[in-house]
Amino acid sequence: MSIRVIIIDDQGMVRAGFAALLSAQSDIDVVGEAADGRSGIEVSRKTHPDIVLMDVRMPEMDGLTATRELLSPEPGTAHCPKVIMLTTFDVDDYVYEALHAGASGFLLKDSPPASLVSAVRVIHDGKALLDPGVTRRFIEDIVRRRPRPRRDPRLQLNGLTPRETEVLELVARGLSNLEIAERLVLAEQTVKTHISRILAKLGIRDRAQAVIAAYESGLVKPGDSVR
Q1: Over 60: is that where the pLDDT of 153 sits?
Q2: Distances in whole angstroms, Cα of residue 134 to Cα of each of 60, 165, 208
């Protein structure tokens, strides 16, 4: 079954270029486009995409607001897509807010074409958009520059077992599943199972949100290194 994608960006040439690139892939279908966030939400509700490529800065409704609306649907709404934010370095703070709102990752608009195709497939498969270490460094930088009140991790993460808490800490420190498995002397599939349970218990979508949860709970702090 093909991956259904919509593109929300106020630049027509960007939409056309992304659509042509993605449509050329045998496993990806571009099922809609929109020039602003408000229209994008309407297109998403009609077409039920798997992935939404969302620009940050747009007229009418920006990408951050649109992401919040898409990922906080009204009760009874069965469909909820995954969102990849399209950005440049100068809007990092907005991207962090989008990740906090539930977006699955971000992609620089000037990334190579192969990166866009890969991002769609990776997010569709439920994996981290970026290498775990890159994701960690990005989020750590934002947390350092924009500190948030930290709650006792034992209270925020009290639904996790000690092992799951340990796995979450290592995820946030930038270790891959294989590295976590080797460190804890576990099978890699066992680590994947732990991560799936962590996501379910914390009510989050993917690894990016898990990293954010670890930092915001105080389980991991900027500058921490793997012990």
Answers
A1: no
A2: 32, 21, 11
